[in-house]
User: Fold this.
Amino acid sequence: MNAAGKLRAKLNGSAMIVAPFVYDALQAKIAERVGFDTVYMTGFGTAAARGYPDLGLLTMTEMVENVRVIARSTNLPLICDADTGYGNPINVRRTVRDYEAAGAAGLHIEDQVWPKRCGFLAGKQVIPIDEMVPKVRAACDGRSDQNTVIIARTDALAVNGWDDVVRRAHAYRAAGADLIFVDGIRTIDDLQDYATKLGDLPLLYNGQLLSIAELAQRGFKLTIHPGPFLSYYQSMRGVLAELKQTGSVRMRDQNNAFRELIDLLGVEEMDALGKKYAE
Assistant:
């Protein structure tokens, strides 16, 4: 079974899927090693890793290349941020095909005006429902593999409120979206409204307002979790500051960390291949 088929099977199961944010191959390999069964390519992180804010500055080509890099590094299903689909419904069809070819098992497109903004930033704008619905239909029709999961994201909560979100969510689901993703959930009350107002739909949640167990109790099918990404930033900033200020970095077991890393990256397997072809 390919990655899209694995993801589809997981969604058809009863357990909530937890996909941690990753933006590069090393993070994806670590997620797989510690036991996650799905990962999520964050658009915010993909932009940040290239030194840009998440303001629609990356092109589809740059995003697809990152899909390819991450997908080839892991056997896990990869869910990806595809921004607004990079154009009209015809562009969205191409986006889906290119993401699939790069290895995406699922992807989400959003109803923001381009250039988009991170879902938790102020100043977002959304396109009309009757412009987004054809894009969702095009995304679903554009799949070369019907197992590829199409997720419709709406950013209308901060812009227009819950009534519009509910209208959009049901319209996007009727257009064929496998999951609905309301972004910009900032409070526990927002989260509770999300779970109750749209409880009849398969839902994706982005955040960490509650524990995984508590989120699962609210019926979400998929949670993409930013915690590892944000913690990575904090840790790296702290370590670099420590090195700058003290001239050294304290580590519990540097040698063991290095051994784990070279094992994770498959050094022994590559050496064995080298010996095989040298015979």
